[in-house]
């Protein structure tokens, strides 16, 4: 695990799934798996690597007993429109929103 992954786990109890060209950070709480971030290097973004990372996190979540995923978009952040399209493209639906935060959800079923 990278130093960044170790840091996230120690400081915020966030787990990380890493590949050479990117990573996904996530947190499991009960039946929910919150995918906090997925990052893929620019030169690999057209290769469906983000989907692969999300799929691997989903497998981990199912094994841990999760029944749904959540993800968020901060509208004021750079790339927010793209992030929303990616979440919707992954099958997530609008769940709720607050000031400068949109929450998406996807059911992944039980074991």
Structural account:
By secondary structure, this protein is of the alpha+beta class. It has a single domain (3-107), classed as 3-Layer(aba) Sandwich (Aminopeptidase). It contains 3 helices and 6 strands. It has helices at 3-12, 49-63, 80-89; strands at 15-19, 22-29, 32-40, 68-73, 93-98, 101-107. The protein has a 6-stranded mixed sheet with strand order 1-2-3-4-6-5, sandwiched between helices. It is globular.
The domain count comes to 1
The major pleated sheet works out as: 6 strands, mixed
The level-1 CATH class: Alpha Beta
Beta content comes to 35-45%
**Strand order of the main beta sheet, please?**
1-2-3-4-6-5
CATH-assigned fold name? Aminopeptidase
- The arrangement of helices and strands along the chain is HEEEHEHEE
- CATH-assigned homologous superfamily: Gcn5-related N-acetyltransferase (GNAT)
Distance between the termini: 27 Å
Name some characteristics of this structure:
3 helices; Aminopeptidase; alpha+beta; 6-stranded mixed β-sheet; 111 residues; 6 strands; 32% helix
What would a concise description of this structure say?
With 111 residues, the protein is of the alpha+beta class. The chain is built from three helices and six strands.
What are the SSEs and their pairings?
Elements: H1 3-12, E1 15-19, E2 22-29, E3 32-40, H2 49-63, E4 68-73, H3 80-89, E5 93-98, E6 101-107
Parallel strand pairs: 3-4
Antiparallel strand pairs: 1-2, 2-3, 4-6, 5-6
């Amino acid at each position: 695990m990278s130093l960044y992954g170790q840091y996230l786990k120690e400081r915020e109890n966030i787990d990380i799934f890493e590949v050479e060209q990117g990573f996904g950070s996530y947190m499991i709480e009960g039946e929910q798996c919150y995918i906090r971030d997925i990052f893929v290097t620019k030169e690999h973004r057209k290769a469906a690597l983000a989907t692969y990372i999300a799929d691997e996190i989903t497998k981990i979540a199912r094994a841990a007993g999760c029944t749904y995923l959540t993800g968020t978009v901060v509208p004021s952040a750079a790339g927010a429109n793209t992030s929303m399209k990616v979440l919707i493209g992954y099958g997530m639906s609008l769940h709720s929103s607050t000031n400068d935060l949109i929450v998406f959800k996807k059911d992944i079923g039980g074991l």
